[in-house]
Amino acid sequence: MTSAPEQQVEAGAARAPARRPPIPWGRVAAVLGVIVVAVALAYVQSGSGIVVSQAVVTGILVGGVYGLVAMGLTLIFGVLDIVNFAHGSFLALALFATYWLVASTGMHPYLALGICTVVMFVLGALVQRGILAGAMGRPLENQLLITLGLAMIIENALLLFFGADPRSVALPGDRGVPILGAVADLSRVLAFGGAIVLAGLLFLLLQRTRLGTAIRAVAANHAGAELVGIDTRRIHMLTFAIGTACAGAAGALVAPLVTIEPTTGAQFNIIAFVVVVLGGMGNVVGALLSGLVIGLAEQVGGLLLPGQSPLLSVFIVFVLVLFLRRRACSGGPDDGRDAVHGAGPPGRAPRQPWNRHLAVVAVLAVLLAPLPFVLPGAQEAVVVRVLIFALLSIGWNIMSGFGGMFSFGHAAYFGLGAYTTAWLLVERDVSPWIGMAAGMVVAAGFAVVVGFLALRYKLRGAYFALATFAFAEMLRLWATNSDLVNRAEGYHVPYCPRTPGGTCSSSRARPTTSGSPSRSPSPRSSSASCSCARGPASSRWPRATTRRPPRASVSP
Question: For the chain, which terminus, N or C, has the lower number of CB atoms within 10 Å?
Answer without folding.
Answer: N
